[in-house]
């Protein structure tokens, strides 16, 4: 399509409608709009067609603090916003009925406009913004939640802590993630909304609630496979625990299996979650000999549960010192979510990793457009002495 710049028809302009239905090899004359200028508040945004409904129905938002690169969030995904320069001139022509651009403009006869076919250019765009799907930035969420874990004596100190607690809206304003990704992360961090604020419950307090639940299970002959929510919550409340935290304990350490006969939900204690919780508590003091750790761990868990070292994938590492095997805490939940930072931390811990040890620490990494194999190629070097040997990964 040919574009002819015409400065002689300053007074007779036609809006964007004049070029919407132009046929191939046709032409249109253009002129400078009286308000022609840089108009930095007007930016072109290139969109994938699947994003149009969210944009047109105003279901998107820009998120980020002044010192962060902005991201655009739909209800379920996060996108980086990047500027791409144009090699050709792109003219922006406003609609003819756009009142925002009518100031100081001159009236002209509509019939003359149609004959002249002149359109007014308000701006020449140097480029456009494009969206690239990215992983949500959740490390900041973890730091915010860890500022003030909910503790046993919280009720007394509540008024002193309000200034450093965060509501849902506070987290939305501070964390670069879509609403769905943010809620999923809160669930993964075992956070609970308490008195309007999202909190992580202190490990020692959660230990108190879980131990009381297990104690009451023995006293009341509750089956670990069929805990009735209303009954459990009622008993824990009578023991001095808030209703909200009693339910939260079930959500953290059990799985919902369905409604009960009285309409109350029925839960089944998750053996792995309970056993991992006690293992974390034992290793809070640091490195232990494997044999001693396994003995103490087996003693800590409920009688009906069986410990298995495979439960601790992504929670602990082992090392051999002489003839002794030692175990120490190294949880994937404490590592950064950004791949570059994650691999950096891993290779600081160990210079070389066998795949069976490395895999639990990277399987939760999610980078749109990049597979697990792609992550390994980007951040590691793979060596394999023989065809039958296990591959070993080191820093690239």
Instruction: Please give the order of strands in the largest beta sheet.
Output: 3-8-6-5-4
What is the CA-atom radius of gyration, in angstroms? Answer: 31 Å
- Mass-distribution shape: extended
* Percentage of residues assigned to helices: 25-40%
Number of helices: 15
Q: Compute the separation of the termini in Å.
A: 50 Å
SSE-based structural type: alpha+beta
Beta strands, count: 19
- Provide mean pLDDT, rounded: 87
> Mind describing the biggest β-sheet?
5 strands, mixed
pLDDT under 50 segments (min length 5)?
Answer: 5-13, 104-116
> Strand portion, in percent?
15-25%
Architecture overview:
This protein is α+β, with helices and mostly antiparallel strands and 396 residues long. 34% of the residues lie in helices and 24% in strands. It contains 15 helices and 19 strands. It has helices at residues 17-20, 52-56, 110-116, 139-146, 154-161, 168-174, 179-188, 203-219, 229-238, 243-253, 271-282, 290-300, 339-349, 355-358, 372-379; strands at residues 2-5, 27-32, 45-46, 61-63, 71-73, 78-92, 118-121, 123-134, 191-194, 197-200, 227-228, 254-259, 265-269, 288-289, 316-321, 324-329, 352-354, 380-383, 392-395. The strands form six sheets. Strands 3-8-6-5-4 form a five-stranded mixed β-sheet, covered by helices on one side. Strands 1-2-7 form a three-stranded parallel β-sheet. Strand 1, helix 1 (17-20) and strand 2 (27-32) form a beta-alpha-beta unit. Helix 9 (229-238) packs across helix 10 (243-253) and helix 11 (271-282) crosses helix 12. The model is unreliable at 5-13 and 104-116 (pLDDT under 50).
């Amino acid at each position: 399509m040919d574009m002819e710049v015409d400065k002689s028809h300053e007074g007779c302009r036609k809006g964007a409608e004049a070029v919407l239905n132009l046929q191939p090899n046709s032409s249109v004359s253009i002129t400078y709009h009286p308000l022609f200028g840089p108009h930095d508040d007007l930016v072109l945004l290139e969109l994938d067609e699947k994003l149009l409904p969210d944009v047109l129905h105003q279901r998107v938002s820009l998120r980020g603090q002044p010192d962060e690169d902005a991201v655009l969030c739909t209800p379920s995904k996060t996108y980086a916003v990047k500027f791409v320069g144009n090699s050709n001139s792109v003219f922006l022509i406003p609609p003819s009925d756009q009142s925002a651009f009518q100031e100081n403009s001159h009236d002209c006869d509509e019939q003359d406009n149609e004959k002249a076919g002149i359109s007014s250019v308000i701006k020449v765009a140097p480029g456009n913004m494009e969206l690239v799907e990215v992983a949500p930035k959740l490390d900041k969420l973890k730091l915010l939640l860890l500022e003030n874990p909910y503790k046993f004596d919280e009720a007394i100190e509540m008024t002193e802590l309000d200034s450093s607690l965060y509501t849902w809206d506070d987290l939305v304003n501070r964390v670069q993630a879509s609403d769905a990704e943010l809620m999923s992360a809160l669930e993964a961090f075992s956070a609970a909304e308490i008195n309007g604020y999202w909190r992580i419950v202190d490990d020692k307090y959660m230990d108190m609630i879980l131990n009381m639940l297990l104690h009451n299970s023995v006293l009341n002959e509750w089956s670990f496979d069929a805990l009735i929510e209303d009954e459990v919550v009622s008993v824990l409340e009578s023991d001095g625990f808030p209703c909200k935290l009693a339910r939260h304990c079930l959500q953290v350490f059990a799985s919902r299996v369905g409604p009960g006969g009285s309409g109350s939900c029925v839960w089944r204690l998750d053996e792995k979650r309970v056993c991992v919780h006690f293992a974390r508590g034992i290793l809070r003091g640091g490195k232990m000999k494997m044999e001693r750790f396994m003995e103490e761990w087996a003693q800590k868990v409920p009688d009906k549960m069986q410990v298995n070292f495979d439960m601790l994938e992504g929670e602990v590492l082992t090392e051999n010192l002489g003839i002794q095997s030692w175990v120490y805490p190294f949880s994937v939940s404490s590592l950064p979510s950004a791949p570059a930072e994650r691999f950096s931390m891993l290779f600081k811990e160990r210079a070389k990793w066998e795949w069976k040890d490395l895999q639990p620490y990277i399987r939760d990494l999610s980078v749109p457009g990049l597979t697990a194999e792609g992550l390994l190629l980007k951040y590691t070097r793979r060596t394999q002495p023989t065809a039958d040997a296990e591959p070993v990964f080191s820093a690239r």
